[in-house]
Automatic annotation (TrEMBL):
Its main location: cytoplasm. The lineage of its organism: Bacteria, Pseudomonadati, Pseudomonadota, Gammaproteobacteria, Kangiellales. This is SsrA-binding protein. PANTHER family: SSRA-BINDING PROTEIN, TMRNA-BINDING COMPONENT OF TRANS-TRANSLATION TAGGING COMPLEX. Residues 138-159 have a biased composition (Basic and acidic residues). It comes from Kangiella marina. Keywords: Cytoplasm, RNA-binding. Residues 134-159 are annotated as: Disordered. Belongs to the SmpB family. The gene is smpB. SUPFAM superfamilies: Small protein B (SmpB). It is found in: Cytoplasm.
Length: 159
């Protein structure tokens, strides 16, 4: 009989970039795989990652993740030089990369990392084609969020 190991939920989040949703209007999202080293996967299992300053650079028909900080574990191998801010290649289809290139070059969008999560045994990164918010847009979004919370409270107490 086969042993049943621990199973994670299909979309358990490793890290979120809440700052991106605050600073940008997300027009479209994509799911990308990541080319990682062994020590990085071990660190991700421990949740030692920071996406807040990360962004995606498109170059020569490929996509790369910059600024993602994955802290190496203390127990990592001594013969491997662990660079926490290493540039990591994103694994996307050609038509997805073409869509990102069009958005960035023609329409002035930015490509930002939104969420890193497990999908079965693979680590996936949700990236978004985003347009920057102005200060008044951020205030309007905050005001709308507050109003929705107040509305929910009122509806809850009236029923």
């Amino acid at each position: 009989m086969a042993k049943k190991g621990k199973q994670k939920s299909s979309n358990s989040a490793i890290a979120l970039n809440k700052k991106a949703r605050h600073d940008y209007f997300i027009e479209e999202t994509f799911e990308a795989g990541l080319a990682l080293q062994g020590w990085e996967v071990k660190s991700l299992r421990e949740g030692k990652v920071n996406l807040s300053e990360s962004y995606v650079l498109l170059k020569n028909g490929e996509a790369f993740l910059f600024g993602c900080h994955i802290s190496p574990l203390k127990t990592a191998s001594t013969h491997v030089v662990a660079d926490p801010l290493r540039t990591r290649k994103l694994l996307l289809n050609n038509h997805e990369i073409a869509k990102l290139f069009r958005g960035v070059e023609q329409q002035g969008y930015a490509v930002v990392a939104l969420k890193m999560y497990w999908k079965k045994a693979f680590i996936k990164l949700e990236i978004g084609l985003a347009k920057g918010k102005k200060q008044h847009d951020k205030r309007a979004t905050e005001k709308e969020r507050e109003w929705n919370k107040t509305k929910e409270r009122l509806m809850k107490h009236s029923v």
